[in-house]
Amino acid sequence: MKLSDSTRARVIGRAAPGAVHSGLPLMGCRVRAGFPSPADDHLEGEINLHEHVVKRPAATYFVRAEGDSMLGDGIHDGDLLVVDRSLEPLPGRVVVIALEGEPTVKRLARRGGEVWLVASNPRFAPIPLAGRECHVWGVVTHVLHALPGGER
To answer: What is the pTM of this model?
Structure first.
């Protein structure tokens, strides 16, 4: 089965334990996404983004998404996904899974006693896992999405 019209995954690295990561300023105010608000001059502290999204470094890796089958979950082509291999792939979770040797990103679902991979873009049909070779590579915990004009 070829998944070229779906959202695939391409591993780009793992969360190296012991790597040096410096903290960046964390503003003490929240930014409204609706009505504009004046910026707060107070810093809340520093945040290390790596520590924020990687809870278990030995079990975590990063992967880039390719395709548009997971747009409904906010996963776009080229987004960076944080994947934790230590989390259980329960129904409802978004997973990276090798289906017949080809890695893909989908949501696990249980329907009628069977397990399915479900895209969040209605253009893609659910994929039954019964009788297929598959191996879960981990659960997606975070999505880093660059906005147009932002660097990737």
So the answer is: 0.77
Tokens of 109: 């679902």
The token pair at 83 is: 């994947």
pLDDT (tens digit per residue) in 72-102: 999 999 999 999 999 999 999 999 999 998 9
For 28-81, the DSSP string reads: SSPPPSSS--PPP--EEEEE-HHHHH-S-GGGEEEEEEESSTTGGGT--TT-EE
Radius of gyration from C-alpha coordinates of the chain: 18
Distance CA 13, CA 32 (A): 33
The per-residue b/e assignment along 101-138, b for 16 or more CB within 10 angstroms, e otherwise, is eebbbbbbbeeeeeebbbbbeeebeebebeeeebeebb
Look up tokens 């996404």; give the residue.
Answer: 33
| Angle of CA points 20, 25, 26, to nearest 5° | 115
Task: Please give the positions annotated as active site.
Answer: 69, 106
